[in-house]
Amino acid sequence: MLALYYYPGNASLLPHMMLREIGAAFELRLVDRTSNGQKSAEYLRLNPNGRIPVLVDGDLVLFEAAAIALYLADRFPEAGLAPAMGTPERAAFYKWMVHLTNTPQAEYYAWFYPHAQVSDEAAAVALKQAAGERLDRMFDVISGQLGDRTWLLGERFSAADLFLFMLIRWGRGMPRPPRSLPNLNALAERVVARPAVQQALEAEGIKAPLF
Ligand SMILES: N[C@@H](CCC(=O)N[C@@H](CS)C(=O)NCC(=O)O)C(=O)O
């Protein structure tokens, strides 16, 4: 049995949406961040970094949202969440998955948790502002690359679109939210219209504004 350790709206939303798209049986296990559950001894045995999410599949214990996403795409190829191995489309899929995780997702860490990096209040404010400006530029590039395509890979929907939606959603409180870019807004609308995504959002108790 698959089990996903999650907290509503966190990086666990990507594998959660994928599991709903796949239609596999799985158990959702809440990590209670309100009591710092991600730093409990029990959870640290699953992910010594104390971060959410973790996927358990039998004896496999996997952390890192992007790694979980790539694993799920391979484990359930019939769900079509990634193009066939060895194709140019697969290469583009890797590009987006890696870019999204190590560029905007990593930048969000400074935006959401500036105090984890600097203790001085003025430095934290400056760090957050600089991270927000870098995120704006990253979303400009992603929006330009997306253009008027339906999905990041063109006509083909993939897990990368779910990933991008999650990152667009995280920016909904920014001074210039990603949804203010028409291409990104249109992609987020298309993702939210998917029944599996609606199920995941509802199961996590996520209400409007969704992004
Ligand atoms: N690179 C990691 C980042 C995970 C991450 O930072 N998760 C956040 C929630 S979105 C978290 O657990 N924050 C709580 C903390 O750092 O204590 C991944 O993609 O899994």
Automatic annotation (TrEMBL):
<dbReference type="InterPro" id="IPR036249">
    <property type="entry name" value="Thioredoxin-like_sf"/>
</dbReference>
<dbReference type="InterPro" id="IPR036282">
    <property type="entry name" value="Glutathione-S-Trfase_C_sf"/>
</dbReference>
<dbReference type="Pfam" id="PF00043">
    <property type="entry name" value="GST_C"/>
</dbReference>
<dbReference type="Pfam" id="PF02798">
    <property type="entry name" value="GST_N"/>
</dbReference>
<keyword id="KW-0808">Transferase</keyword>
<feature type="domain" description="GST N-terminal">
    <location>
        <begin position="1"/>
        <end position="80"/>
    </location>
</feature>
<dbReference type="InterPro" id="IPR010987">
    <property type="entry name" value="Glutathione-S-Trfase_C-like"/>
</dbReference>
<dbReference type="InterPro" id="IPR040079">
    <property type="entry name" value="Glutathione_S-Trfase"/>
</dbReference>
<feature type="domain" description="GST C-terminal">
    <location>
        <begin position="86"/>
        <end position="210"/>
    </location>
</feature>
<dbReference type="InterPro" id="IPR004045">
    <property type="entry name" value="Glutathione_S-Trfase_N"/>
</dbReference>
<protein>
    <submittedName>
        <fullName>Glutathione S-transferase</fullName>
        <ecNumber>2.5.1.18</ecNumber>
    </submittedName>
</protein>
<dbReference type="InterPro" id="IPR004046">
    <property type="entry name" value="GST_C"/>
</dbReference>
<dbReference type="GO" id="GO:0004364">
    <property type="term" value="F:glutathione transferase activity"/>
</dbReference>
<comment type="similarity">
    <text>Belongs to the GST superfamily.</text>
</comment>
